[in-house]
Amino acid sequence: MTSGEAEVNRRRLISGPGTLLVWLYGVMVVGAVSRSAYQIATEFDRAPLAYALSAVAGVVYGFITYTLVRGGETARRVALACCVAELVGVLTVGTWTLVEPSAFPDATVWSDFGMGYLFIPVILPVSAIFWLRKGAPEDR
Question: What is the pTM of this model?
Answer without folding.
Answer: 0.84
